[in-house]
Amino acid sequence: MTIKEVCEKYNITADTLRYYERVGVIPPVTRTAGGIRDYRDQDIDWVENAICFRDAGMPVEMLIEYVKLFQEGDTTIDARANLLKEARETILEARKKYDIALEKLDYKIGRYEIAQKTGILSWDDCDDSGAKRKKHQ
Amino acid sequence: MTIKEVCEKYNITADTLRYYERVGVIPPVTRTAGGIRDYRDQDIDWVENAICFRDAGMPVEMLIEYVKLFQEGDTTIDARANLLKEARETILEARKKYDIALEKLDYKIGRYEIAQKTGILSWDDCDDSGAKRKKHQ
DNA sequence: CCTTGACCTGGAGTCAACTCCAAGTTGTAG
DNA sequence: CTACAACTTGGAGTTGACTCCAGGTCAAGG
Which DSSP letter does residue A11 get? Predict the structure, then answer.
C-alpha cells in the first residue's frame, strides 16, 4: 500500500505518517527497492493503533516509548504491560471528564430549550451559574 | 476569592486564569478597588465551566465565542443553544474514540497478562497486529 | 530516453494553549 | 513608614504535534 492509499484509508496527511515514522510513533515502514514506503499489513496495524491512541489523547511521547520497548524485544513485556495499564487509567480519567462536560452541556441545553419554547429568558435559565446555586440555597 | 485560592481549588496556574480572562474564555473578573482580582461566585462558575469544557477537549476558540455571545445578551440565545448542541456532538464523537481506544487497550492488556502468566510469548500475543488478523483467516 | 507526477529527506515554520518574565503596584505585618 | 509577599500588566518564550518546503529521486506512460 502506498503512503497515499494509507492517507486516504485513515484520512490523515502523508506528512503526518512520515512524521510518525521519523519520531518513532510507529516502527520503520517496509520499503521498496527504490526506498519508497510500501505499507504492509503490520505497518498498517501500527498506523491504525497510533491513530487510535492519538485520538484518545495519548501523547506522542508515550507511543514512542511503547514502540521503543517493543523493538527491544521480549524482555520488555512487563514494562509494556505497565505502560498499557497506565494508558488505560489515563484514558479512563479523561473519559470521565468528557462525561462530566456532557452532563453540564445537557443541563444547559435543556435550559436553553425551555427558554426558547416559552420565550421567557432569565439569568437563571441561561447563565452559567445562577440556577445551580439557587437550587441549594 | 483571590486568584491563588481559585488556583488551588481547581489545580490550575494563575497564569492560565489570567490568560483565560485576557483572551475571553471567561468574562472580566470582579476586581477590588485596587484592581486585584476578587473571584465572586459567578466568576468562579465561569472558571469552573471553562475548565470543564477545556478538559473535554473543547477549543479555547469556542469558549471565547460562547462568552462573546453571552455578553451580547438575549438576542443570541439561539446562537448559544446551537453552539452548545454542536459542542455536544463534538464531545460525543471524541468520547467514542476514547471508547474504541479502551477496547483496543483492554484486548492488548489481556494478551499481555496471558503472556506473563504462562511465560509464553509470541508474536500473536504481544504484537500489535498478528492476533487480530489471524482470527479472521 | 524523457517527461511528469508521486515520493523521498532534513530542516524550518506554524498553531493552539499555555507559561514565563520584567517592571511596576497593592496590601499587610512589624 | 517600611519591608516584603502577592498581585498587576503587556509581551515574549515554550511545548506538543504537526505542516510545509526545497531540492532531489523514482517509476509509469509516450
Answer: T
Contact B97, A56 (CB under 8 A): yes
Query: What is the tens place of the pLDDT at every residue in B30-82?
Result: 999 999 999 999 999 999 999 999 999 999 999 999 999 999 988 999 999 99
Nearest to B98 among A95, A108, A112 (CB): A95
Enclosing H/E stretch for A125: helix A123-126
Amino acid letter, B52: C
- Local structure of B31: helix, strand or coil: strand
Residue with cell 498506523: A47
Q: Which residue in A has a C-alpha nearest to residue B44's C-alpha? A: A129
Q: What is the dihedral of CA B29, B43, B84, A118, to 10 degrees?
A: -110
Cell of B5: 485560592
Q: Which pLDDT score, from 0 to 100, does residue B130 have?
A: 46
Report the 10 Å Cβ neighbour count for B18. 13
Q: How far is B38 from chain A (nearest CA, A)?
A: 17
Q: Which chain A residues in 3-62 sit with Cβ < 7 A of strand C? A: 3-4, 14, 18, 22, 31, 35-37
Whether B49 sits inside 8 A of A91 (CB atoms) is no
pLDDT for residue A117 is more than 90: no
For the stretch A18-46, pLDDT in tens is: 999 999 999 999 999 999 999 999 999 99
Integer angstrom CA distances of residue B52 from A61, A99, B58, B125, B129? 25, 10, 9, 39, 36
CA of B131 to C1' of C5 (A): 38
